[in-house]
């Protein structure tokens, strides 16, 4: 496209007017920061709600309920669920949240039977501090997801008091499952005794099926089993359950998509504006370059490259700033005891840089075309 | 200073003085209520029983002598009223379990229903039987986690877990850390 | 100091219609966003703050102080409280103590509807209308117990994502496998109750199969003091209650939403920053083209400050024009628009403060947008300026 020998020339053009270049880069960085932030929210939604081929988890919940306080299923449903064809394993879980409403700092407890924690956590979980054996030793111990621990500044050995439950941090884990990152796992009977003052009631059952293609049929079978029971159930794939329970928040985040598009338009406008202004300033120079033998097309390519550089620098600054804030903040939306993480993946970073660069090129095209078509005489006359 | 400024200043001063009112604080009760000086016993009170023992058979109107620890919640004193909560000596705190707990008197390690069984409430009442409008913590005689012996009459017992003592005498035996 | 005539600034605006249009549109977008964000945040705060009264006290289950929906207390608590507490308001023999159940349920227009939304259903008795005087029935009547009747708040339709007509008098909705008839509509402006459905307490207990209630709300009379309620709670450890002033409970909810508010403000600030940076760039270029003109004005005797003032007038005019258009558009399009948010709904509050903030933003954009470029432009000595291309 353009020979590397011209790069010093392009860079010098960019820093010729440092204040204006900085303003343009600053504007692009701001817009890309917002764009990456919005996209990482969208990615979080996708991660939490879109089913992938290998997903084999069903959530059995009380029918017509989403808020964990309102779903009270008898624990004695467990053997009946386990007996249904296609069910590989079923874990009763009690969920306690300090608030069912949606916000960024909600504490969620999940009580699981002591020997089921291994089943519940994903196979690729990494223990960062403490251990699961320590968790098994005490009745009031908790294993925290990394996001929750960082947000609340908790380490192994601390006491953790929230939602009327006081527990002891026995370990901190990192998981690729968004629901595990923002949760404190405690013993089921401990949670039942603390909150209900009796055993026997859980919020949901997490069911793993033998074959992922049978999710719908097993779900229907479970619901049929309890249709006329005192607490009828509604069984859905885990991701679908999150999508419905968090529908409000997902709508709002979806609306933010327009903000993302607006940011990209702003990047285009900023780069376009900057290039336009700088080309107007340099009409005479371009004429001189043409008399020296630089072809019109080369001048056009130089202008496009300029746009590319500015956009790339601004895009990189904004993208990495967004990444730093997201990593440091460990933000996560919680609603009804479910988490929608805000995460910036490597592919998102790459996409951001690519889009910024592409916009830089696009913004430079029209001024480049015009500049390349201008004859030498027109240039001198224009001044 | 001209007359207008003087009047304005006077209004301002009156307003500021008036603003100092509002809800009486625990330390300076607006209605002048104070804990009776005879409340604080200088000598140890003999014959104290544990809360669990008293709860088992006390009836309304009985005169009892009780020992316990001020605690049971992060704030065991009621603001603006002479009411406080006591916990039986036998209940262990998180500090007793070897943990470093900033507020061991809240007994947060103990399940709530077990805690309720081992608790009692003490209050200092006026002639009408209503708690005095001053906190038991005022005057700094009582602090959370203090071991106290109290003497007084048992109030109504609508439930076996409820034990309210209208105390006439309190002795601070020790102050736990 | 002689200042430049105001119409000099106006005429300069017309020099480049494209640039003027860009400034006005840019400013309009940023100001509209600022007004919308302020209206959203103020609407959210107001609906929570106005929901709580200073004279009301809520008795909740211990450990549930943050969320009434998860609280459970014995159904006998209100009776026991009424018997033991002094200072509770009463009128014509009716004590102002309301037993309530608050549940977040999904409702639908038919029994088997799949896409149902969540709404707060409140089970109440007659005292609820005394304890919550903000609630007024605007159509129909109050519900009768035992007849599957309900009344719905004005924003309940918004909350459910339904048409208002679907919740008109006489229509039915389903929850808990029971069909309920709407016999009344109520309003409780700027409170969370506006987006609720109210059901007779016992009917809800039966349909939800619960024997506990969520809370008891009582109103103190003129002599009543919160401390007496706190003393009652301390003496009845068997009931495991906690007493919270209603205003404090809702203040805590406002604090609970603080991260969301901060996020909105940060977003708006970033957008404004982007707008300023973009605008500054344009202004730099615009003023750079007028260096010779500025030199000439200085040689005519106008001081630098006068010229800067004129530039700022120009920029402020453009941005305020955008701001005014944004304010007018917001008033027409946004005022009172109901937003669904997290178990409730509220109306955007486009009040004087929101508009003032928007207009102030417009003014600031204009001033900040013009100042650095103007100062830069005037750096050159007059002779250099006159020689500039």
Given as residue ranges, the uncertain stretches of chain B (5+ residues, pLDDT < 50) are 14-30
What's the helical proportion of residues of chain C? 40-55%
> What general form of chain C does the structure show?
elongated
Q: Compute the CA-based radius of gyration of chain C.
A: 30 Å
Q: Termini separation of chain B (Å)?
A: 58 Å
Radius of gyration of chain B: 21 Å
Question: Largest sheet of chain C, if any?
Answer: 10 strands, mixed
Strand order across the largest sheet of chain B: 2-3-4-6-5
**Mean pLDDT score of chain B:** 81
User: What is the number of beta strands of chain C?
Assistant: 14
Enumerate the spans of chain C where pLDDT stays under 50 for 5 or more consecutive residues.
none
Distance between the termini of chain C: 29 Å
In words, what does this structure look like?
The complex is a heterotrimer of chains A (383), B (177) and C (389). Chain A has 383 residues and is an alpha+beta fold. In chain A, 55% of the residues lie in helices and 19% in strands. Chain A has 2 domains: 177 residues, no CATH class; 168 residues, no CATH class. Chain A contains 15 helices and 14 strands. In chain A, strands 1, 3, 4, 5, 6, 7, 8, 9, 11 and 12 form a 10-stranded mixed sheet that branches. In chain A, strands 2-10 form a two-stranded antiparallel ribbon. The longest helix of chain A has 35 residues. Chain B has 177 residues and is α/β, with parallel strands linked by helices. In chain B, strands 2-3-4-6-5 form a 5-stranded mixed barrel. The longest helix of chain B is centred in the first third of the chain and has 17 residues. Chain B is globular, with a radius of gyration of 21 Å. The N and C termini of chain B lie far apart (58 Å). Chain C is 49% helix and 19% strand. In chain C, a hairpin with a 2-residue loop joins strand 2 and strand 3. Chain C is elongated, with a radius of gyration of 30 Å. The model of chain C has no long low-confidence stretch (mean pLDDT 89). Chains in contact: A-B, A-C, B-C. Chains A and C meet through helix 2 and helix 11 of A and strand 4 and helix 9 of C.
What are the key terms here?
heterotrimer, A: alpha+beta, 2 domains, two-stranded antiparallel ribbon, 15 helices, 14 strands, B: about 180 residues, alpha/beta, 5-stranded mixed beta barrel, 3 helices, 6 strands, about 15% helix
């Amino acid at each position: 496209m353009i020979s590397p020998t011209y790069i010093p020339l392009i860079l010098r053009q960019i820093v010729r007017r440092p204040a204006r270049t900085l303003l343009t880069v600053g504007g692009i960085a701001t817009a890309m920061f917002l764009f990456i932030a919005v996209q990482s929210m969208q990615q979080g939604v996708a991660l939490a709600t879109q089913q992938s081929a290998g997903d084999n988890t069903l959530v059995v919940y009380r029918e017509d309920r989403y808020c964990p306080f309102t779903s009270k299923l008898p624990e004695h449903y467990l053997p009946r669920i386990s007996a249904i064809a296609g069910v590989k394993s079923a874990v009763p879980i009690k969920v306690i949240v300090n608030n069912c409403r949606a916000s960024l700092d909600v504490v969620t407890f999940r009580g699981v039977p002591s020997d089921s924690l291994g089943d519940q956590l994903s196979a690729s979980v990494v223990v960062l501090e403490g251990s699961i054996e320590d968790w098994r030793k005490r009745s009031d111990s908790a294993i925290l997801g990394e996001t929750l621990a960082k947000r609340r500044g908790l380490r192994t050995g601390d006491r953790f008091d929230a939602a009327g439950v006081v527990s002891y941090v026995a370990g901190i884990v990192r998981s690729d499952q968004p629901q595990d990152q923002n949760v404190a796992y405690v013993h089921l009977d401990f949670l039942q005794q603390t909150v209900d003052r009796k055993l026997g009631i859980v919020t949901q059952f997490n069911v793993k099926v033998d074959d992922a293609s049978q999710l719908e049929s097993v779900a229907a079978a479970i619901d049929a089993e309890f249709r006329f029971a005192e607490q009828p159930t509604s069984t859905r794939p885990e991701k679908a359950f999150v999508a419905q329970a968090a529908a409000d928040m997902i709508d709002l985040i979806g609306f933010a998509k327009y903000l993302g598009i607006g940011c990209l338009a702003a990047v285009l406008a900023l780069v376009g504006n900057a290039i336009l202004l700088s080309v107007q300033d340099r009409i005479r120079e371009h004429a001189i370059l043409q008399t020296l033998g630089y072809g019109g097309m080369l001048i056009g390519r130089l202008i496009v490259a300029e746009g590319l550089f500015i956009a790339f620098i601004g895009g990189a600054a904004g993208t990495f700033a967004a990444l730093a804030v997201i990593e440091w903040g460990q933000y996560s939306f919680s609603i009804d005891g479910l988490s929608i993480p805000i995460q910036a993946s490597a592919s998102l970073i790459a996409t951001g840089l690519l889009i910024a660069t592409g916009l830089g090129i696009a913004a430079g095209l029209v001024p480049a075309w015009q500049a390349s078509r201008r004859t030498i005489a027109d240039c001198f006359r224009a001044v | 200073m001209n007359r207008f400024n003087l009047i304005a200043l006077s209004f301002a001063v009156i307003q500021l003085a008036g603003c100092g009112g509002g809800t009486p604080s625990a330390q300076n009760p607006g209605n002048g209520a104070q804990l009776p000086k005879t409340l604080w016993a200088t000598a140890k009170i003999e014959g104290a029983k544990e809360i669990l023992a008293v709860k088992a058979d006390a009836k309304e109107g009985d005169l009892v002598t009780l020992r316990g620890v001020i605690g049971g919640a992060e704030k065991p004193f009621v603001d603006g009223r002479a009411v406080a909560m006591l916990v039986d000596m036998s209940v262990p705190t998180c500090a007793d379990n070897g943990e470093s707990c900033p507020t061991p008197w809240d007994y947060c390690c103990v399940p709530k229903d077990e805690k309720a069984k081992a608790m009692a409430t003490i209050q200092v009442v006026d002639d009408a039987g209503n708690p005095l409008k001053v906190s038991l913590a005022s005057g700094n005689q009582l602090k959370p986690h203090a071991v106290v012996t109290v003497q007084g009459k048992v109030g109504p017992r609508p439930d076996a877990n409820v034990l309210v003592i209208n105390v006439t005498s309190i002795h601070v035996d020790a102050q736990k850390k | 100091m002689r200042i430049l005539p105001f119409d000099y600034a106006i005429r300069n605006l017309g020099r480049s219609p494209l640039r003027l249009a860009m400034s006005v549109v840019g400013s309009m977008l940023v100001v509209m966003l600022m007004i919308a964000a302020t209206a959203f945040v103020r609407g959210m705060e107001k609906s929570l703050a106005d929901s709580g009264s200073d004279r009301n006290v809520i008795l909740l289950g211990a450990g549930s102080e943050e969320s009434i929906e998860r609280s459970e207390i014995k159904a006998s608590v209100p009776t026991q409280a009424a018997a033991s507490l002094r200072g509770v308001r009463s009128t014509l023999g009716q004590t102002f103590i309301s037993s309530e159940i608050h549940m977040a349920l999904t409702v639908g227009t038919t029994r088997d509807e799949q896409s149902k939304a969540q709404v707060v259903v409140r089970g109440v008795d007659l005292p609820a209308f005394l304890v919550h005087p903000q609630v007024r029935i605007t159509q129909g009547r109050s519900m009768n117990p035992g007849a599957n009747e309900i009344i719905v708040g004005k924003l309940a339709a918004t909350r459910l994502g339904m048409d208002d007509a679907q919740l008109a008098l006489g229509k039915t909705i389903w929850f808990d496998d029971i069909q309920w008839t709407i016999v009344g509509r109520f309003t409780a402006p700027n409170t969370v109750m506006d987006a609720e459905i109210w059901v007779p307490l016992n009917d809800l207990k039966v349909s939800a199969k619960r024997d506990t209630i969520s809370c008891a709300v009582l109103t103190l009379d003129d002599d009543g003091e919160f401390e007496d309620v706190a003393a009652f709670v301390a003496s009845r450890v068997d009931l495991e209650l906690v007493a919270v002033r209603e205003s404090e409970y809702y203040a805590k909810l406002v604090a609970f939403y603080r991260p969301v508010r901060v996020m909105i403000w940060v977003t708006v600030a970033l957008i404004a920053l982007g707008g300023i940076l973009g605008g500054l760039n344009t202004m730099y270029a615009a003023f750079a083209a007028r260096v010779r003109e500025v030199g000439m004005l200085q040689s005519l005797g106008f001081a630098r400050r006068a010229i800067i003032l004129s530039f700022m007038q120009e920029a402020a005019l453009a941005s305020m024009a955008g701001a005014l258009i944004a304010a007018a558009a917001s008033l027409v399009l946004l005022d009172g628009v109901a937003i669904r948010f997290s178990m409730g709904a509220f109306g955007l509050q486009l009040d004087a403060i929101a508009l003032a903030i928007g207009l102030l933003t417009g003014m600031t954009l204009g001033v900040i947008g013009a100042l650095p470029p103007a100062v830069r432009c005037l750096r050159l000595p007059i002779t250099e300026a006159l020689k500039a291309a």
